Amino acid sequence: MPELPEVETVRRGLTRLVGGATIQSVTVLYPKMVSPEAATFVADLTGKTIEKIDRRGKYLLFRFNGDLTMVSHLRMEGKYDVQPAGSPVTKHTHVVFTLTDGRELRYTDTRKFGRMRLMATGKETTLPGLATMGPEPTEATLTFDYMKQRFQKSKKAIKPFLLDQSNIAGLGNIYVDETLWMSRIHPLQEVNTLPDFQIRQLRENIIKELNMAILGHGTTVHSFSTAFGEAGEFQNHLRVYGRKGLACQRCGTPIEKTKVAQRGTAFCPACQKYHKHVKQTMILGLTGGIATGKSTVSAVFREFDIPVIDADAIAHSVLAPGSDGVDQVWEAFGDRVFEAGKLNRKALGHIVFNDADELKRLTDITGPLISAAIKAAVSTYRRKHANLVVLDAPTLFEAGYAAKTNEIMVVKISAAQQLQRLMARDDLSEDQAESRIKSQLPLQNKIEKADVVIDNSGSVETTRVQVVEWLDKMGFIKTPAEDSAG
Ligand SMILES: CC(C)(COP(=O)(O)OP(=O)(O)OC[C@H]1O[C@@H](n2cnc3c(N)ncnc32)[C@H](O)[C@@H]1O)[C@@H](O)C(=O)NCCC(=O)NCCS
Ligand SMILES: Nc1ncnc2c1ncn2[C@@H]1O[C@H](COP(=O)(O)OP(=O)(O)OP(=O)(O)O)[C@@H](O)[C@H]1O
């Protein structure tokens, strides 16, 4: 069934094709499809000009001169196309608008579920579907305050809640699954258990995703085509819908498919966990390539008193003198990485960053220790009711921490800058720096998985501004009034 992006794609196409065209005659081949009854429908439209085509939710609103509006809903399979007059119609063509310029605007619908209603302009807002319709998902119309007060009142599962057009206009099965995946929300999560940060994420993801889908001319998974008879392209960008059994593009876990409110529902069981109780603390994963600027970004969070869990520091502590980790490293690597009984990190680094098997041998030891320490730190901050905790981890994706976060921020710089900053900071040769960079997942790969990308190729201050903007957008910067109110 066409959702908002597909209907908007049709609206844009039709505006180009028939905006300004005048109707010479109308043939109704399936009278049940139109109202008022066919003879009046035809008489009222004859001689009228299509001044504009609007959209509200999944409804098309054809505006004619004489203050007439035709409300058209495509339902499951409805399609408009424009053909030269007299060319053969199909058995599924139900309404033909002959234009004065020798073309025909035709409506076809294999399922015959679509409807067209002609009425005085302005009256359409009283139609059952339109009268109760929720806000359009745009920056200006779908506000956080609206969502918050609406969400507080509902104990429904989020999936059917979002499909209900009276809450938010335009979403259907595909984009609900996509935006829930983007926001790490389980489709069965009760709406009133969502913390503020998830409402903000969901709001932003709905607006972003629908805009992207419009730019991609909609999604064709079944039969949708544009007014030009072409398939959409956005099906190539879907992350969960239609991907059952395939790896989650964020964490690698196979996507599952289940039924929620009678609708097929795809989700990632690792990224979209169901929570019995509200999880108030947002975990922001912060990553990038080596020396791209994670610590520089972390410093901004610390400036706002936001706790940062530093995976590198934890990695150091699990290999501290006398630790179990060091014993295990000695058993695995032997004396060659020890000097006077002390672990020689540089020597170990030299081995592991030049040989993937050796790196795996090391991370098989350090991985579980680091992971347990991160888990303990997160639990501590949750108990303290922190609103936001940053997990700064260079190997966030490689080590499998991505599914444990609510959002991922990637810090990027150009390849040349990365090499130069790494060589300068760690006093490495070009070869040494390159082999460290190569031992990590390519930066571009991380950027593709990111929810937000911080560009650190300019000054530190330019980077700071981007981080502060994110904090502000997510509601983590309190105004002085909010602060004094506690
Ligand atoms: C090999 C070790 C001893 C080298 O120590 P050294 O003091 O020279 O470097 P340091 O620990 O400060 O790491 C520097 C940078 O190397 C990169 N790096 C470290 N470990 C890895 C890894 N497993 N995979 C890819 N890159 C890594 C990161 O970008 C990190 O910021 C050390 O990096 C280590 O113990 N690595 C394994 C632990 C780990 O996976 N750490 C990452 C934390 S999530
Ligand atoms: N915007 C910037 N302009 C110039 N130099 C910068 C900028 N941001 C960071 N640097 C420098 O680049 C180097 C790497 O930055 P930083 O230490 O923040 O990276 P990192 O991603 O935390 O590194 P690692 O992967 O080792 O943890 C440092 O020497 C830092 O001072």
From TrEMBL:
Pathway recorded for this protein: Cofactor biosynthesis; coenzyme A biosynthesis; CoA from (R)-pantothenate: step 5/5
Sequence ranges assigned to domain Formamidopyrimidine-DNA glycosylase catalytic in this UniProt record: 2-114
GO BP, one annotated term: base-excision repair
Location of the FPG-type domain: 239-273
Subcellular location: Cytoplasm
One GO location term (cellular component): cytoplasm
Keyword check for Heme: no
Recorded GO MF terms: 8-oxo-7,8-dihydroguanine DNA N-glycosylase activity; ATP binding; class I DNA-(apurinic or apyrimidinic site) endonuclease activity; damaged DNA binding; dephospho-CoA kinase activity; double-stranded DNA binding; zinc ion binding
Enzyme Commission number(s) of this protein: 3.2.2.23, 4.2.99.18, 2.7.1.24
A family per Pfam: Fapy_DNA_glyco
Annotated binding of DNA, by residue: H92, R111
Cited function: Involved in base excision repair of DNA damaged by oxidation or by mutagenic agents. Acts as DNA glycosylase that recognizes and removes damaged bases. Has a preference for oxidized purines, such as 7,8-dihydro-8-oxoguanine (8-oxoG). Has AP (apurinic/apyrimidinic) lyase activity and introduces nicks in the DNA strand. Cleaves the DNA backbone by beta-delta elimination to generate a single-strand break at the site of the removed base with both 3'- and 5'-phosphates.
Family listed: Belongs to the FPG family.
Oligomeric and partner information: Monomer.
Protein name: Multifunctional fusion protein
Species of provenance: Secundilactobacillus kimchicus JCM 15530
Higher taxonomy: Bacteria, Bacillati, Bacillota, Bacilli, Lactobacillales
